[in-house]
## 1
Amino acid sequence: MREFLQIPVQASAHAAEVDQMTILVHWVMLLLFVGWGAFFLYTLVRFRQGANPKANYHGVKSHFSRYNEIGVAIIEGVLLVAFAIPVWAARVDAFPSEAESTVVRVVAEQFAWNVHYPGTDGQFGRTDIKLVDANNPIGLDRTDPSAKDDFNSINQLALPVDRPAIIHLSSKDVIHSFSLIQMRVKQDAVPGISIPVWFTPTMTGDWEINCSQLCGLGHYRMRGFYSIKTQADYEAWLQEQAAGLVTQ
Ligand SMILES: [Cu+2]
């Protein structure tokens, strides 16, 4: 099933759990397909016109289909309550502490991902929609002391491996969806609210950020890139960004 579904690489701590759920759902769908398909073929043969020239006005007497429906409903209930809800709850409830995580903000817009890093002080500087312009896509207020070391990138997200990452997602215009397939992360970015999402990357690599909501004419080109680096590479990268700030 894994090969059939062409499941992408599992590069985060919770990826295996999500995949297990996806695979289970596909097996159950296959079972339903075969079951209902067989029933359909049976009715085609059993109730064909040739063998039943006169319609039966009483209809079906057996309760088989009712029990079958109840069985399917129970299986779906178990899938939802025993598998889907616990996986979902573990994903969205048990947030790691910000002190032990890499925290960044991602602001979506038509059609790009702006990434806001808090810099070495770990404090996000003030942002204001009135300050947004072509050179300052996140509206960062450089007069705020916490903003001095902040930097932002467009369509480039870097994170260290084996450390929880918390991303505060928002949007400047319409609803976008932040999707990191290899991390098994997908979350809508909604204008007016900040939605946190977290995951722990377990593998270094370079992949794409996709927008999973049809967000406008340029939706197809709303792709960013993310890079999971070793701790040393990540720190070197941060320093590079900081050096870039000084020379500006
Ligand atoms: Cu989008």
## 2
Amino acid sequence: MLRIAAIAPDSLASELGLRPGDELLSINERELVDFLDWEFLAADDAFVLGVRTARGEAVEFDIERPEGLPLGVTLEPPKIRRCANRCDFCFVDGNPQQARQTLFIRDDDYRLSFRHGNFATLSNLKDKDVRRIIEYRLSPLYVSVHATDTAVRRAVLRNPKAPPILDQLRMYASHGIDFHTQIVMVPGLNDGAVLEQSLRDLWDLGGSVLSVSVVPVALTSFSRHELVRSPGEAEARAAVATVHRWQERARSERDFGWVYGSDELYMVARQPFPPADAYDGFAQSENGVGAVRYLESLIEAGLDTLPDMAGQRVLVCTGAAMKDLLPLVFPALARATSAAFELVWIENSYFGPSVTSVGLLPGADFKAALADRAGYDLALLPAESVNEDAIFVDDMPYAELEAATPMPIRLSYHFTDALAVALV
Ligand code: SF4
């Protein structure tokens, strides 16, 4: 069911009399199942929209609009498609009981893969989903491949019914659909010869596979460790070597690197990150692939926009994953602003110290880390640590933290976004 959550003021939808709570039923008599139907079918400039109003009346609107004019309708959030797998490293199993409720959703949704770049395994698709992917040409899709060998992949996903991924990718590719793919590397399961084979198979699919990332499995203190373990340094080094070997081939035959190790993989391997241009535009930076180099390049590009902050002290909060890396950009920031930057890195008490990413730091840990820090003019928090409703993973609202800290705080993705506006 598609329901309207909000209507933009002075929009076409508000002129028509559409209201929050109204149900969008059809376009040109074709049923609207979800936001994908809405996005694709309502893209025309003229169509007949069937609506059931919040009062239960069925109404049809004959809509004609100037090209490109948005209707001004915001939909209620979609019902997320649940996952059919049971990976041993599944993040959901690693959640402590009191975690934010949405973290318990085992989502595996091809629609969010297309719309937001969430990785999906494509193992829970029904025939009608396949038809929609092809009809709407949902490309690129972000696909968790893990292994191209069906038996290994089924073992990784713990799903004996997972369809052969190569057949799926081949079929979609024949309809013009491209993919960004990832391999979550579980030592002893899909590294070594299996990784090599997976890269060969993906390479043989040709230009439809736009990129591959190799990411070491992330486990929390709460994960079940019976079958999976984190890779050690030697295993990570071997994977980096495999990635580099394939990159060399890709650069000589396709003019770009094609396969990339995640930042975490280099850190476990104790090897330096490749330079920024080795990431070919950072296609998977949101997957932690080249994230540090990406950050550096954004800071570099925004340095001229920063205000003079002479005499001010700025505290930069991060998680363990970035604690050795963020200080590398402080001298450049200090030169541009004349402020002093200091780091506080926070160990994750919520998921356990093995979870190092900033996106999973709870509000309570920020609160504790900042509580006794007087004398700072500002603290910068990673913007990834709250969701779109400004709530941390432990359900603490950002506003609650803001009221509890001894200095102003700001959320920041790459420093320049938060510092461009001077403190008053
Ligand atoms: S694919 Fe695996 S890791 Fe992802 S939600 Fe499903 S069970 Fe969890």
